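JOB MANIFEST
job_type = single_chain_structure
chain_count = 1
residues = 281
[input]
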Amino acid sequence: MFDVRDIKKSIDSKIVKKIFGNKTNANLFLQKLNLPKESNPYDKIVKIWNYEAHKGIIREMFKELPKFTSGIEGERSLQILLEEWEKLGLGEVKWPFSQGAFDEFVQKINGDNRFSRLQKDEQVKEAAVRYRRIKEINTVRNDFIETLLFLKHEDLIPTLSHTRGVDFFINGISYDQKVAKSPTNEFKKQYGNQWKRVALENPAEVAKYLYQYQDEGRFGASPRLFVVYLDEGITPVQIKHIIDKAPIRTPLEITFSYQHKSLGRITYKTFCFIILLTNDL
């Protein structure tokens, strides 16, 4: 089991830094409490921390960020980006190559003797455009989803800058938001033509597969909030409607085993929330 800290009960400087991201934000928080600027504001916040009294201030600070504005405008922005993708004729919205595998991708193209050098140049150019646009789509979509969750759940405290592994705290517990384009190929293979029915009837099984078959380079067993596509072509309006109806109160308890390359198979226990995006709801 991982180490879970409930910031309703206590907090340390490491978690304070995750919430505020930098000393500027931390000192701004102190300023809103009519306290002086500190050379080490993180330790000061640890000493005065009061969850119920301070969560509202942090939420108001989040509303002042460009990220919140982006999230509020996300429905329209995401629709525009998806329409542009379609007009450019880029096909299915999926990665042209794995993140960090550009060199391998180019070597594969260079080794394909069916195409001329100019044709290979065009393939690389299109792949680069697809990659950049997917990164932009994902950023807008993630901000949109996080903002919808923020507006829905008054006990959600978002981090004020990007922090790997933590996007927000729900009821005092840290969660990392993960958006998945499917419940994994392994899940679909296991349940065949009934995979979607199984997913809708047993979301915890979907979460188990997402943990169990995650990439080892980004492995984590900490609490997550999964948003999972079961269908293609889910519109921003549908995303908003589904998240508005999704219960985000009691997390699912998940037990999964993971086959590490060097450590072997290890069993983990964690918990998560999961939201399924489908045309069937």
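[summary]
The chain has three domains: 1-64, 65-152, 154-281.
The two ends are 34 Å apart (CA to CA).
exit_status = 0
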